[in-house]
Design brief:
Length: 149
C-alpha cells in the first residue's frame, strides 16, 4: 500500500508537473508503472524513517496528510531526476522533506497520531535516550563500596 496515490500526487503538485516527470514517451499518457514503482519506493523510504518510533503502526492507516505529501515529494523528485527534468524547487522540497523525516526518526518531531500503549517500551531508545528503564536498584554504588580498596 502506497501512502500517496497518483491522483493525490497530481492534486499536490499539479497535472503539468506530474506529466513532465512521468510521461516518459511524450504521448500525453502517464507511465503508471513508473509512477506506482516510485510511489511504492517512496513509501518504503518513509517507513524506514518512521520505524524507530511508529513500528507498531506501520503501515500507517489512515495516512496523515504530512506523510502523503512527504511520500509524494520523494516520488516526484526521483521521477523528475530520472527524467532529467528536476527543478530547483523540487530539489529544495525534497531536501526539506528528508530533513523533516530525519527529525521524525530522531524523535525531534512527532506525528499527530496515537501510539499504542507500551510503544516505545521499557528500555527502548528514542532520540538517544533510554525510555522508561526498569532496572533494579544498583548494588555497587560509590557509597556502598567506599573503603573496600
Amino acid at each position: 500500500m502506497s501512502y500517496c496515490t497518483v491522483q493525490q500526487l497530481i492534486d499536490l503538485f499539479g497535472e503539468d508537473t506530474v506529466y513532465t516527470a512521468a510521461d516518459r514517451d511524450h504521448d500525453d499518457v502517464l507511465d503508471t508503472d513508473a509512477l506506482n514503482l516510485r510511489l511504492d519506493t517512496a513509501t518504503s523510504e518513509v517507513n524506514a524513517y518512521l520505524r524507530p518510533h511508529y513500528s507498531a503502526l506501520l503501515p500507517l492507516d489512515p495516512v496523515p496528510p504530512v506523510i502523503v505529501e512527504a511520500t509524494g515529494t520523494i516520488a516526484l523528485y526521483k521521477l523528475s531526476h530520472t527524467a532529467g527534468v528536476v527543478t530547483e524547487e523540487e530539489r529544495k522540497r525534497y531536501e526539506d522533506t528528508i530533513t523533516f523525516l530525519s527529525k521524525l526518526a530522531s524523535g525531534q518531531a512527532q506525528l499527530d497520531i496515537d501510539v499504542p500503549e507500551g510503544e516505545p517500551g521499557a528500555g527502548q531508545i528514542k532520540g538517544g535516550t533510554i525510555l522508561d528503564e526498569d532496572n533494579p536498584e544498583r548494588l555497587f554504588t560509590r557509597k556502598r563500596t567506599q573503603g573496600l580498596l
